[in-house]
UniProtKB/TrEMBL annotation:
Homodimer. The gene is trpS. NCBIfam families: trpS. HAMAP family: Trp_tRNA_synth_B (MF_00140_B). It catalyses: tRNA(Trp) + L-tryptophan + ATP = L-tryptophyl-tRNA(Trp) + AMP + diphosphate + H(+). ATP binds at residues 9-11, 18-19, 147-149, 186, 195-199. Catalyzes the attachment of tryptophan to tRNA(Trp). Belongs to the class-I aminoacyl-tRNA synthetase family. This is Tryptophan--tRNA ligase. L-tryptophan binds at residue 135.
């Protein structure tokens, strides 16, 4: 079975709709057909300041949400990044292979550091994409299911894997991004020109899966569309409506063309009211399931311990091979 690897940050508490549709939903599907490794990337989260208590709670909360979304620890390897020390170790090796200029070209760093101010952005935030390279290469992943915003980081991963293989001999699998066109980028409900994001979206534009379903329904009903009235998918001319159609289509498994037909001659109000209902039906059981997993932290922690053990077997082998190829003297 081909292997997939992906991760999600435990930062904001609730996952948002972009995280779910852009990434987590694919993770659930891929565990059936692939050898799947999924992790909560707490080492990435600390590239910006975190309150220790919140970080710990949010890490469990992220795991609970992944399980609620449908990840099954019997079908995939689910773990927390910091439980597998090889990530930080291979991260250092990859830092030593990355050009400073190359790292400086990462647009996510540019955006995030611009927001924080150059003096406050950490070196960790700067090298975060390089740690991500290590995350992927450790598992010899063939594919990486992510949203469009991560494409550049997968490109960097490919470049570094090729560089290492070229210099030291075949060691790493060259991974490919796994990005579904329809959900590659879910947009802010209030500003459909920008991606839905926990740090950049306004509260009204951001759908948090763990919000009160009534709040979510209201956000969907007041989503920004356009002054036209026709319900048609046109990402350029009608980004707001197109975003709603993508969300609707993915959550219900109905083709966008079928939705266009269903809403022919109807107003935006009808579309939004129905989508609000679809959303409520989706988030209500999701919230309940998440809470159930959270109520049993011992089981959660035991499951993570098992996941880390499975992950370490693979990660340790790759790291040992990497050290050896590079000429690091083995400890006797
Ligand atoms: N709007 C989105 N559409 C599609 N996919 C998205 N992802 C995030 N936003 C969208 C995908 O979610 C996965 C996990 O993301 P992350 O935990 O790495 O968080 P992020 O990318 O940092 O999420 P945000 O909300 O965009 O955070 P900020 O505001 O801090 O930048 C990834 O696969 C990502 O592609």
């Amino acid at each position: 079975r081909p292997r997939v690897l992906s991760g999600i940050q435990p930062t904001a508490g609730s996952f948002h709709l972009g995280n779910y549709l852009g990434a987590v939903r694919q993770w659930v599907a891929l565990q059936e057909s692939h050898d799947a490794f999924y992790m909560v990337v707490d080492l990435h989260a600390i590239t910006v300041p975190q309150d220790p208590k919140d970080l710990r709670a949010n890490t469990r909360l992220a795991v609970a949400q992944l399980l609620a979304a449908g990840l099954d620890p019997e079908r995939c390897t689910l773990f927390v990044q910091s439980h597998v020390p090889e990530h930080a170790q291979l991260g250092w090796i990859m830092n030593c292979l990355t050009g400073f200029g190359e790292a400086s070209r990462m647009t996510q760093f540019k955006d995030k550091s611009a927001k924080q101010g150059a003096d406050r952005a950490t070196v960790g935030l700067f090298t975060y994409p390089v740690l991500q390279v290590a995350d992927i290469l450790l598992y010899q992943a063939d594919q990486v299911p992510v949203g469009e915003d991560q494409r550049q980081h997968i490109e960097l991963t490919r470049d570094l894997a090729e560089r290492f293989n070229g210099r030291f001999g075949q060691t790493f699998t060259i991974p490919a991004p796994y990005i579904l066109k329809e959900t590659a980028k879910i947009f802010d409900l209030q500003d459909p020109a920008v991606k839905m994001s926990k740090s950049a979206s306004t509260p009204k534009g951001l759908v948090n899966l763990l919000d009160d379903p009534k709040v979510t329904a209201k956000k969907v009903r007041s989503a920004v569309t356009d002054t036209d009235t026709v319900i048609r998918f046109d990402a350029e001319k009608k980004p707001g409506v197109s975003n709603l159609l993508s969300i609707y289509s993915t959550l219900t498994g109905t083709a966008v063309t079928d939705l266009e037909q269903r809403y022919e001659g109807k107003g935006y109000g009808a579309l939004k009211t129905d989508l609000a209902e679809v959303m409520v039906e989706f988030v209500t059981p999701f919230r309940t399931r998440t809470q159930e997993y959270l109520d049993d932290p011992e089981t959660l922690d035991a499951l993570l311990a098992k996941g880390a053990e499975k992950a370490r077997t693979v990660a340790a082998e790759t790291l040992a091979q990497t050290y050896d190829r590079m000429g690091l003297l083995p400890a006797k």
